[in-house]
């Protein structure tokens, strides 16, 4: 069964060749998103930066769209599938400038690091709210954004908050996963676990290394 599954999966992990070439070269991958950057002054930022380089450190609040992914559930329902990425950016900006977080969704967001996930696509730090109430209000904010922007991804309800650390260029085998997990587990045990995030940022991106803020949601 394991051999059958390996044969059926794509040759490369999901980020290749769209976000990165098979040799690791950064590729053009455009879109928009709503994120909270990890404060560069925070112990969490310095802990992750000591392990990786050249990756935007942030927690995604709402996924937004990617120009290369145009199908229902990944593109706004009220925008034609052949609309330009620029027109989508403009539509989102217009809607989000009128969007109010309200006191129930206002920053700061208090999160806690829960562990390291070794996935087929890469490595991520798993986050959770410090309390069930914090999780509830972040989920409610995601629901409001989905309604406002007319886009609800297939995993909207199950979405796990995280910080992406690594994108794999090849699928790691079980032994490699164990080695990566052992190294990162030792590092994780020494990391600060609590982090406070500021207001959500509507961002545009053109690759996976740089997410450019347009404005903060208010």
TrEMBL record:
<feature type="domain" description="DUF1868">
    <location>
        <begin position="19"/>
        <end position="54"/>
    </location>
</feature>
<dbReference type="Pfam" id="PF08975">
    <property type="entry name" value="2H-phosphodiest"/>
</dbReference>
<feature type="domain" description="DUF1868">
    <location>
        <begin position="55"/>
        <end position="105"/>
    </location>
</feature>
<protein>
    <recommendedName>
        <fullName>DUF1868 domain-containing protein</fullName>
    </recommendedName>
</protein>
<dbReference type="InterPro" id="IPR009097">
    <property type="entry name" value="Cyclic_Pdiesterase"/>
</dbReference>
<dbReference type="InterPro" id="IPR015069">
    <property type="entry name" value="2H-PEstase_DUF1868"/>
</dbReference>
